[in-house]
Amino acid sequence: MTSRIVFVNCNQRDLSIQHPWSTERNDGVNEDDNDNQQENNTIDLEVVSLTLEDFADFTTILQPNDILILDDVLQINEDIQFIVKYGCHHYSLAAVFVVTQSCLSSPLYSLIGACHNLILLFGNTATTRLAQHLVQAFFLCPDTKAYLKAIFGIAEKQQDTVVLKLNSIASNRLHSRILALTRVQGLFAANCSDQHSSPPFCFVYPELNHWEHLSQTMSNSIMGDLSLEDGGPHLKEAFVLLPASRVRQQDLGEHSEGSGKLCANEKQKKWNEMALYLEHEIESTFPLKKWNAAKNLTREILRCNELCISTDFRSVFISNKPRSSYAIIDFLHAAIRKSGPNELPDKVAMYRPLVQVLLKHNVPHAFILNKLMLPGQKQHSTAAARRGSHRYDPAQSHEYGQQSRHRQRHRPFKHARRIRHSDMYY
Questions:
Q1: Helix (H, G, I), strand (E, B) or coil at 98
Q2: Alpha carbon 174 to its chain's center
Q3: What is d(CA 122, CA 410) in angstroms, rounded to the nearest whole number?
Q4: Contact predicate 306/342, CB 8 Å
């Protein structure tokens, strides 16, 4: 079934405006021109324009696979609230768009929690305030907050159109991996049909915990001729989305097997270089008696598939938290020494997420000599323990008093005279 566009004008003062997709033909336009225009359109959609009063009977209007547009929504009623929260899935609609000037500090704010995506048109202060509020109210991870602030900062500078994901679609696995799309207006470039010009594209920012996986699974044989300078600044985590017609498959030819072996040899060479570098750093930093402990723990770090080493071989980070990196030498220095008697746990608490990942992969506890780095371990200073031993305990004091009185009642020679030292000599 072909899709229809059901356009609902929710502003009663805007009923006299004639929209470009109106079915009425203007005077002076030839029918031949209309026929030619319809032939040039690649997508032929039926448009149904309604007012908010006509939309009250939406059960008889909506059909499966319809695209519903609620334009210029100022107030929400029961019909709009039902369609956004439940009706889109119950009536099998293709999409529901709610168009408004601003939803912050308005009744429309209650609909944000039920939306899958938000389309933000940067270029005004209302969108900037809404973006700042979304970062603080809908995201908890500090890395994701810093990630979004950088994305919104570039979009505000370039006045881009951003599609932000708030709630993942359960039936779409790809949607759960994408966090935001920027420069969306670049997909509708006027010269998209020209094969010799730069193709239309936009930037795709995946979730931080999926960025490493998407980078490794990308095929090197897919090529696209485009100039990223036309898209303006972007972050290093960005991917590029462009039409499939402008993507070509690189032919590896008969040397495809040799190329694969060469790639494997290059990876092996890089791995050996990293291993030699870390071994040299350990031997030049730690004394001889700590070499084995440092090398054992380094070997477990390299074997763990949830940990990644930076390109300069100096730091390690968890795969789903690329912005939280740890210096390898500093981590080894803290892990292969014993904790001091008065050392506070907060001094090495920053390394606990890294230790938890290692222990999850069955790394022996004996490799972590500093027990303060283990999860759930706490150590108090000797002075604090000594102060705690002299605290007043009413139960112990009552028991001691009873024992003292019991000894006084059963003391032999209770009424005997105290023997003085002078009585011992005659």
A1: strand
A2: 15
A3: 91
A4: no
Please provide residue 380's backbone torsions phi and psi, each rounded to the nearest 5 degrees.
-105, 155
Q: Reply yes or no on whether the pLDDT at 180 is more than 90.
A: yes
Question: Parallel, antiparallel, or unpaired: how do β-strands 67-71 and 161-165 relate?
Answer: unpaired
Helix and strand counts by DSSP (H, E) for the chain: 13, 14
Mean pLDDT within 54-59: 86
Q: Token pair of 129, please?
A: 């305030």
CA distance 83 to 60: 14
HSE value, Cβ hemisphere, 13 Å, CA-based, for 170: 1
Is 200 buried (19+), middle (13-18) or exposed (0-12) by CB count in 10 A? buried
Q: What is the largest CA-CA distance in the chain?
A: 149
Give the tokens for residue 185: 């207006």
What's the rounded mean pLDDT across residues 215-224? 68
Over the Cα atoms of the chain, what is R_g?
Answer: 35
Amino acid, single-letter form, for residue 365: H
Q: Using CA atoms in the order 9, 12, 18, 22, what is the torsion angle rounded to 10 degrees?
A: 30
Whole-angstrom distance, CA of residue 318 vs CA of residue 10: 49
Which spans in 286-369 are helix H?
Answer: 291-303, 328-335, 352-360
- 321-327 and 315-318: which strand pairing? antiparallel
The CA distance from 279 to 277, in Å, is 5
The 10s digit of each residue's pLDDT in 116-158 is 899 999 988 889 999 999 999 999 988 999 999 999 999 999 8
pLDDT attached to residue 55 = 86
Residue 380: its pLDDT value, please? Answer: 46
CA 321, CA 409: separation in Å to the nearest integer?
A: 71
Note whether 250 and 222 are within 8 A (CB). Answer: yes
Is-contact 10 72, C-beta < 8 A?
yes
| Residue 391, pLDDT score | 52
Average of per-residue pLDDT across 196-200: 72
Run of H or E residues at 108: none
* pLDDT the model gives residue 250: 58
- CA dist 164 and 25 (Å) reads 38
Note the pLDDT tens digit of each residue in 367-381. 888 888 887 655 444
Q: What length is written for the chain?
A: 426
At 68, which amino acid appears? L
Taking the whole predicted model, whether its pTM rises above 0.70 is answered as: no
